[in-house]
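sry for the spam today, last one i promise. C-alpha cells for design, 335 residues
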C-alpha cells in the first residue's frame, strides 16, 4: 500500500513547491486511504495505525502552512516560563516573545512568528492586530546605517558590572542572558537599567550595506519605561573570548536555561566605542516603536565555530531584514 510521504512536505523545498493546496490534496488522499483501509478486510491494524500517523503529520503540516502552530512551536508554555525569569515584562517585551505567548495563551497560537516561511518577517504584521506596526510603522528596526546621513551629537556612559552572574535562556527565538539590576547606561545624563542581552545571526543592522556574522543587543529601560538598546556587531574572525563563557553554556533546547556564575559585560564592547544613534523599534513582533538604538560602529569578532554553534540552534538565522530609514536622522556619537 502506498501512502503519501510526509517527508516531502516537511522540507522547505516541498513546502514552497507545493504549498497549502498540495498539502490539502495529500491530506484528502490519506483520509481516503484510511477510509479504504478501514473498510477493506485486507488492511492490517498496523497499516491503519501507520496511515493514522501519516494523517497526524499532515494535519500538523497543514496547520503550519496556514500560519498556525505545530507541536514544536506550542512549546510557548516553556517560553513563558523562561520569560518569567526576567522578573520584568519589559525585558520580555524587548524581544516580543512573552507578549505573543501571553496574549495568545500559548496553545493554538495564531500569532506565532518565525524568521522564514509561514510566520516570517513579511507576514509579522498580519499575524496579530498588535503586530500591525511591523508593517505600517515609520521608525522600524533594524536599518542600514549610512555614514552620509550621520551628524554628531550625544553622550553615552557605560556603568556595566564587570562581574555579573547570568541566567542564559533559549526562548525559541534567540539565546538571551538575563541579569539582576545593577548595570546601567546613562544617555545624556538619563539612567537606563540593563535588563538582558541576546544574540542575532547574521547581524540585523548593516553599515554601508555590509552585514556581519552576528550582533548582540543589550536591552535597557529607564524609569519611564522607555527602552534603549546597545547593538554590538561581530564580524567573522578570531574567537570572541568575551562571549565564550556563554557559548560553553548555550542552552540547546527551547525553554532550557543555564547559569553563568560571572560575566564581564564591558568586555563585549569594542575598544572604540564610537556609535550611531537613531530612533527605532523592537526587531521582533510586536515591533513596538520608541526604542532608542545605539549601534557600535566598530565590530568585534566571532569565530566560525561560535557562529555555527549558534546557527545549530536557530537554523536559517534569526535576523529581521533591514527596514526603510524614511525621514530619520542618524546621529554619530563620539567615543
Ligand atoms: Zn535583538
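last one done:
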Amino acid at each position: 500500500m502506498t501512502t503519501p510521504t510526509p517527508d516531502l512536505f516537511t522540507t522547505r523545498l516541498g513546502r514552497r513547491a507545493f504549498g497549502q493546496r498540495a498539502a490539502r490534496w495529500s491530506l484528502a488522499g490519506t483520509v481516503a486511504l484510511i477510509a479504504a483501509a478501514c473498510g477493506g478486510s485486507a488492511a492490517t491494524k498496523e497499516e491503519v495505525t501507520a496511515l493514522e500517523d501519516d494523517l497526524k503529520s499532515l494535519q500538523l503540516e497543514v496547520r503550519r502552512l496556514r500560519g498556525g502552530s505545530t507541536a514544536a512551536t506550542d512549546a510557548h508554555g516553556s517560553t513563558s516560563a523562561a520569560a518569567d525569569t526576567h522578573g520584568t515584562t519589559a525585558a520580555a517585551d524587548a524581544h516580543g516573545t512573552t507578549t505573543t505567548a501571553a496574549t495568545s495563551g500559548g496553545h493554538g497560537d495564531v500569532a506565532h512568528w518565525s524568521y522564514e516561511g509561514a510566520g516570517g518577517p513579511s507576514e509579522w504584521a498580519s499575524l496579530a492586530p498588535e503586530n500591525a506596526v511591523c508593517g505600517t510603522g515609520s521608525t522600524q528596526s533594524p536599518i542600514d546605517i549610512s555614514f552620509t546621513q550621520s551628524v554628531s551629537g550625544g553622550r553615552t556612559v557605560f556603568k556595566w558590572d564587570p562581574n555579573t552572574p547570568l541566567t542564559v535562556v533559549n526562548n525559541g527565538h534567540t539565546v538571551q542572558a538575563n541579569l539582576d539590576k545593577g548595570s546601567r547606561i546613562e544617555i545624556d545624563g538619563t539612567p537606563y537599567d540593563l535588563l538582558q542581552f541576546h544574540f542575532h545571526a547574521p547581524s540585523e543592522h548593516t553599515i554601508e550595506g555590509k552585514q556581519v556574522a552576528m550582533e548582540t543587543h543589550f536591552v535597557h529601560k529607564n524609569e519611564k519605561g522607555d527602552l534603549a538598546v546597545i547593538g554590538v556587531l561581530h564580524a567573522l574572525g578570531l574567537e570572541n573570548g568575551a562571549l565564550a563563557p556563554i557559548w560553553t553554556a548555550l542552552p540547546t533546547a527551547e525553554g532550557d536555561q543555564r547559569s553563568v556564575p560571572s560575566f564581564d559585560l564591558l568586555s563585549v564592547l569594542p575598544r572604540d566605542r564610537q556609535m550611531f544613534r537613531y530612533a527605532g523599534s523592537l526587531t521582533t513582533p510586536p515591533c513596538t516603536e520608541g526604542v532608542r538604538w545605539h549601534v557600535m560602529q566598530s565590530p568585534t569578532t566571532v569565530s566560525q565555530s561560535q557562529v555555527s554553534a549558534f546557527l545549530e540552534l536557530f537554523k536559517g538565522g534569526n535576523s529581521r531584514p533591514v527596514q526603510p530609514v524614511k525621514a530619520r536622522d542618524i546621529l554619530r556619537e563620539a567615543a
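The first helix runs from residue 7 to 10. ok im logging off now
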